[in-house]
Amino acid sequence: MSVLISPLFPWENNQRLRQIWPWFGCGGLITGLISTYVLGQNEQIWRARAIAKDEAAKTLISEKLALNIHQSESRLEQLTPSPLPESNMAILPAGDVAPKPNFYYQHDRLVSEGTGFLITGRPGSGKTSVACWLACSLTKDTPAQVIALDPHFNELWSILGVKLLGRSEAILETIAWLIEEIDRRYAIKEQNFNDGGKLPLGDPIIVFFDEVGEIMAKLPSKESSQLSQDLRVIATSGRKVNVTLILLNQSPNGGDLGISAKYLNAFLQIALCDVAHDLAIDFWGKDSPEFMAISSKAYPSLVCRSVPAQVMIHPTHGDYAVYQREEIHRTI
């Protein structure tokens, strides 16, 4: 159940993508990010993985751990009843402009410095494209199971070959399962530490959660509070056991997510376009070189929260000279 990332993109040969891609708003601005599904060896891969998992389960000393693994895999099968097709995504360059390396945040630091990720920006700023680019970076060397939680059912996820869950009930069930899965993996990690074993934790998991604020607003107070708490746990603890959460939201306000500033700082925030513009004023003021750099870009970007605030070249739209949807873009 993995999405295999590799730098292949037969764009010219994929008429379906060429026809559909422009209708995705900000997604239509990316070229070279998405390719066709790779389906050829799926059945053999699944059989090999099933055998490997059976052998791993037999080596477990603790019957409780073995039971937990079985329950976890069964739960994942319920949430994602069909195998995720493998697809290829190519990593796009951030653009040619990269003056003063010490001034701009370097993209290759994101994977090592981020635990959970929060991508913020208004429609058209490239949130989804940056999320996909980030997934490419996270899975550069190792395939991952990828799930998208999106109440808008963006068709882009299906083109990527990503399992999509959009109903509120399904989203809450998936988040609850992730908490259980993280606990299970830490139990195996503890077992390995005490016994000197090398039991596998499980495949890496990447979860996209789009329009988090919208889901929060629809939930009753108790469920919203529980979801906020679960998101904090996943963000702070998940990466250590190969579970990565990528939140996407229009507003950078923690109140819209039901997450206090203290816990929101567990996320590495990537702010795009108007959000980056507003935050740059708050961080550095209008007379600062940082704000001037933000103002000079059609698609500005910065990072903050779990890392010191720093200007960053937009990962996927950094070389665009003109904003493509000027009717919603602030003149800066």
Please compute the radius of gyration using only Cα atoms.
20 Å
Strand percent estimate: 5-15%
Shape: globular
Span between termini: 44 Å
DSSP, total strands? 10
Describe the sheet with the most strands: 8 strands, mixed
Structural class of the helix and strand makeup? alpha/beta
Q: Strands across the major sheet, in which order?
A: 5-4-6-7-3-8-9-10
What does this 3D model show about the protein?
The protein has helices at residues 15-20, 42-58, 63-79, 110-113, 127-138, 155-160, 168-195, 212-218, 221-237, 254-257, 261-264, 274-284, 289-295; strands at residues 37-38, 86-87, 116-120, 145-149, 163-165, 205-210, 243-249, 267-272, 301-305, 310-311. The protein is of the alpha/beta class. An eight-stranded mixed β-sheet has the order 5-4-6-7-3-8-9-10, with helices on both faces. A two-stranded antiparallel ribbon has the order 1-2. Helix 6 (155-160) links the parallel strand 4 (145-149) and strand 5 (163-165). Helix 3 packs antiparallel against helix 7 (168-195). It is globular and about 55 Å long. It starts with 14 loop residues before the first helix and ends in a 21-residue tail after the last strand. Residues 1-47, 55-70, 80-99 and 326-332 have low confidence and may be disordered.
